[in-house]
Amino acid sequence: MHEIYSKTAPEVDYSQVKRIEGFETIQCEYSAYLSDESKLSPKPFDYLFFPRSEAELAAVIKMLNQQGTPFTVAGARTGLVGGCVAQEGALISLEFLDKVMEVYRDEPSGEWRVKAQTSVSLKNLDSMLRVKQLPSLEQSPVEAVRRHYAEFRYDPDDYFYPPDPTEMSASLGGSVVTNASGARTYRYGPTRAWVRGMRVFLANGEYLDIPRGRYTASPAGQFVVYDSKGGATTITIPDYPQPRTKSTAGFYTAPQMDLIDLFIGSEGVLGIVTSVDVALLRHEEKVSIIQFVDSDEQAVTLADALRSEGRIQLDFLEFYSGNALDLLRRLQGEEPSTVGMPPIPENAKAALFIEMSFDPHQADLDFSILEAVINDCGGSLERSWAGYESRELDRFKVFRHMVPETINSIIAERKKQYPGIHKLGTDMAVPDGHMREMWDLYRSHCEGLQLEWCAFGHIGNNHIHVNILPRNLDELEKGMELYEIFAQKAVELGGSVSAEHGIGKIKAKFLKYMFNPEQIDQMRRVKKALDPQGLLNPNDIFPVEVTA
Amino acid sequence: MKIVVCVKQVPEVTNVQVDPKTGTLIREGVKSILNPFCEYALDHAVRIKNSVPDVSITVITMGPPQARDVLVRSLELGADEGVLITDRKFAGADTWATSLTLAEAIRTVIPDHELVLVGKQAIDGDTAQVGPEIAEILGLPQITYGVEVNLAETRRQVRVTQEVEKGYEVIEAKLPALVTCSKGELVRRAPSFKDVINARKKPIRVVSANELQIPEEQLGLQGSYTQVVKVFPPPAKKSNLLLQNLEAAEAAREIYSFLKEKRFVE
Fold first, then answer.
1. Would you say residue A527 lies in a domain?
2. A vs B: CB pairs below 8 A
3. Are residues A214 and A253 in the same domain?
4. Structure confidence by residue, pLDDT tens digits, A408-438
5. When you count CB atoms within 10 A of the terminal residue's CB, does the N or C end of chain A come out lower?
6. Are residues A262 and A370 in the same domain?
7. Are residues A237 and A149 in the same domain?
8. What distance in Å separates residue B253's CA from the closest CA in chain A?
9. What is the model's pTM?
């Protein structure tokens, strides 16, 4: 079925919604709402809204619509491309839509699912699932909700939500509209693979309930949305092919695609997701291993070998370059306890970080295949760190997150001298078989220009984040030029200019490397159909023109 | 030279939540870990082993069968063999019955022990009694609150830097001796994956009540002088004053009168 009807939320008085007026007041008293993790500077905007319910959100949208005021939507503000940085009109913070609504078993699939409002943080969801305590459900006035929760608790197995985009303070809804991925995407796919339903408010203030599997594009590639006033909107989905790698650049499209997939990863420019249903997976014990090797190139070779060995099932396969380890060594030299791990061995010149299923109670653990692959690449399991207790897994995860955090603090320090400086972090992925070529390009260019740089990230998905740390504005410019060279090469190899960070406001200029003008126009037409006035999240993905 | 390290399995408290209704700890889903102070003791043992030839480390624990996990963890971190003292008859043991059992097991299974290292206390019970009691029962000199533990060159004495209220004291004791440890490695060791695999091949000896020369009435609950009657969290602090839905001037008046009442302002 490709036709869907939008519904209206209960009416509430717009004046009851908490709002802050005036950019000066917002700047002084609500400065946290001015930017996100991209640190992009905002332009003056007039209103900041805090709706406490979907009905309040609908009232705000309708009022802004009547006024023709553009509005930007913010979740946990953890994005890296400035998606929720307002530049005009109003900013709507969804932070009060933060309740877990239900946990239930979907009988046809046998899956346990969680229905939650958009601003439940991934961290809270993870902690609640770890101990199977979802307090808001215990006190639910709805008997079925309490019963389903009791059934969930009674299930002897433990469950978890697989997407793990490292930044766990991100909101669930935010991770859905950005199709967040991260380390575990290697095994479990991006967020898209776990979304089973959503409620999305459109720019006109009405909403769609979209369970996965019910609404698919017609053979002609169209959806029709009927509103409550009898109006009909036809959406024609783009017809470009998806890159052969993970990607968050541009709208998702596929023949007879599911309507829900159009909204997942759309960066909020097509609608505001207020609740989602996501699937859970049975928990297994895991072991994290940091495998040290002799060089960056050896790490790339070992990563290829691990991926090619079909008998090894890894949850993730991550990379630290030698200069990333040096960065952490420097921290350890200043304050050994900061890093939370023992001293990084002197002979470690790069590392791979893997996680896989592991039964600590099994007496005769057989990891001979893993060991053979590592030995064949010139490595040794003796040169590793391993941990499997939950506190150890957490500690290893903190260690994994420490390189980007350290880079951010170095850049913040340099900004004091050169305010124009910012981090240059690549987000390109290439198809299998091209990682070595891409790595050689990264390395030769960064070293050729004698830039300070390091690399880390999802080598299992051929998706390494190269981070250039400019020491002055001249180096910043050189780094920006390199970025363009890298982006063009990634596309030439069949990859993506943005594998997980999205396009937002910061990376819009790179879309043209992946899509031709007609393809970008196809995306614009989808946006125009759902948001004719161009009010929703202006300047995200499509800079100004479409909003004019 | 044989070093014995006594270890205990404790709940991992960082994730423990309190049931809002009953006020008790929610134990479901809470994992067990090696008590951090025991890990410090083991760290000192491994340091000695790495710096002095011919040292072997035996870790010993008393507990239910699943306490085997902390022995395996200790073997990953560098111990050579484990001893699991487990029997239903040990259930309900207080610090005295535990110390008696551990001491007797050390005497029986590792009669040639020269240095016994223990954590200063467990993070679940916090009594800090078991180490000193074992020393008394075995008739060993004891040094408590050790932060550095080294063997003298002659290997006949242990030299311990002890935490005291005003700083540190360095104390020596003739071996065999017992040291309780209050600090160890700055950050936890991380074994290699090879260590993790190999630990499961190291020997763990299981010892039951009838292998120890202790009369049955001195074991477990029966042999305990104390008993835990109730576990409860400390009373919650008085809730904060929260003013809501007031105009600014009214809120300011309320805050002022509150501060005045508490004599923070005139």
1. no
2. 80
3. yes
4. 889 989 988 998 888 789 999 999 999 999 9
5. C
6. no
7. yes
8. 22
9. 0.87
DSSP-assigned beta bridge partners for residue B84: B61, B206
* In-domain check, residue A88: yes
Interface of A with B in 413-472 (CB under 8 A): none
Which residues from A are below 8 Å from B188, CB to CB?
Answer: 342, 395
Residue A185, domain extent? 100-282
A332 plus A440 within the same structural domain: yes
Condensed to tens digits (0 to 9), the pLDDT of residues A54-91 reads: 999 999 999 999 999 999 999 999 998 899 999 999 99
pLDDT in tens, A3-48: 999 999 999 999 999 999 999 999 999 999 999 888 888 899 999 9
Verify that A442 and A315 share a domain, yes or no.
yes
Quick one: which H or E segment has residue A299? helix A296-308
**CA separation for the pair A193, B240 (Å, rounded):** 44
A196 and A167 in a single domain? The answer is yes
CA distance A11 to A28: 32
**Angle made by CA atoms A444, A449, A454, in degrees to the nearest 5:** 65
Domain count along chain A: 3
**From edge to edge, which strands make up the β-sheet containing B157-164?**
B167-174, B157-164, B142-151, B177-181, B113-119, B2-6, B56-62, B81-85, B204-207
**Percent share of chain A, pLDDT over 90:** 85
Same domain, residue pair A227 and A243? yes
The whole-angstrom distance between A205's CA and the closest CA on chain B is: 29
Domain boundary among A238, A262, A282: A282
Query: Considering A282, A316, A350, which residue would you say is the last residue of a domain?
Result: A282
Low-confidence ranges of chain B (pLDDT < 70): 14-29, 233, 236, 238-239
A342–B189 C-beta distance less than 8 A: yes
Q: What distance separates the 2 farthest-apart alpha carbons in chain B?
A: 78
- Residue A535 in any domain: the answer is no
Segment 345-384 of chain A within 8 Å of chain B by CB: 360-365, 367, 380-384
Q: Does B29 touch chain A (CB under 8 A)?
A: yes
